[in-house]
Amino acid sequence: MIVEDEWGEDLEDIKDTEDYAVEEYTRGAVSTIEFQENRASIMNTSSHFSLREDLVEHLWKIKHGK
Question: How many whole angstroms from its chain centre is CA 2?
Answer without folding.
Answer: 16
